[in-house]
Design goal:
By secondary structure, the protein is of the alpha/beta class. It folds into 2 domains: 6-172, Spore Coat Polysaccharide Biosynthesis Protein SpsA, Chain A (Alpha-Beta Complex), CATH 3.90.550; 178-254, no CATH class. The protein is built from 7 helices and 11 strands. The protein has helices spanning 16-22, 46-51, 71-80, 98-106, 178-198, 205-222, 229-254; strands at 6-12, 32-39, 59-64, 86-91, 94-96, 114-123, 126-128, 136-143, 147-150, 156-159, 163-172. The strands form 2 sheets. Strands 1, 2, 3, 4, 5, 6, 7, 8 and 11 form a 9-stranded mixed β-sheet that branches. Strands 9-10 form a two-stranded antiparallel sheet. The longest helix is centred in the last third of the chain and has 26 residues, at 229-254. The N and C termini lie far apart (58 Å). The model has no long low-confidence stretch (mean pLDDT 94).
Length: 256
Amino acid sequence: MQINPLSLLLLTHNEQENIKKYWTWLDSCPRINEIIVIDDNSTDDTQKELKKLENSHRQIKIFKRDLAGDFAQQRIFGLSETTNNWVLWLDADEVPSSELIEYINNIDTSQHNAFSFKRSDIFLGKELKHGETADSRFIRLFNKNFGLFEGKVHETWIPTSSVLSTNHIINHYSHPSLYPFIQKINFYSDIRAKELLSQGVKVSLLEIIIYPFAKFITDYIFKLGFLDSTPGIIMALSMSLHSFLVRAKLWHLHQH
C-alpha cells in the first residue's frame, strides 16, 4: 500500500471564525504535512489564526493574492506552490467527518488518481438532506499530475484518469446567518454573469423569467426541499434568486 504525504490547499477571505472553530481536526490527520493558503486580502485575523496551525511536522505557506473574480486561477496558483503530488482541497467552512479523516490517513493512492466525497450542508444550523445540495459529491483529493481546475466560480477538479467515489462525508457549515449568504449570492452571480458574457452567451426576457422559476420548482418540489422545513424553502428561494441575478446581470452587461 502506498502512503503519500498530502498538501492541503485552502482559499481564504476573512475566515478567522471558521479557522478558529473548525480546524482542530488537522491534528487528527498527520498525513497532511503542508498547508498552502491563498488569501484574498483578508482584513481580519485570518492570517494570524492560520499561523497557529503550523507545528513541527506541518508547514504552512500563506500567499496574498487578489481573487480577481476567478476561483479556479486561485486554486491553480496554490497548486503550483505545493511540494506534494497529492492534494486535499477544502473551503474554510468545511470539516471532514471523523470517518473521512480515518479514511484519508489510511487511503491507498496506488489504485486511483482522484477520490470524491459526499458533502453534507449545514445551513442556518440545520442539515439539509434534500433540495439543491442533496447528495452533492466533489473530487477533493487528487494527484495534481492528472487533471486541472476549471470554473471561475464553484471551481471543480477535472480529472484525466481514474476516480473512486466514496460515501465518506465532508460537513459544510455554510452560512449560519442569512446576511452573509445573500452577500455571497450577489458576489457569485456577478462572477458567473461575467463568465457567461466572456463566452458570448446571450439571455432573453423569457429566460430571465423561466429559469429562476424552474430552479425553485426543481429544488423545492422535485428534489424534495420542502422536507427540510423553513431552511429548505429559504435555500430553494435563494438558489432561484441566484439564477435570476445571473441572467439579469448578464442582460445588463450586454446593454453596456
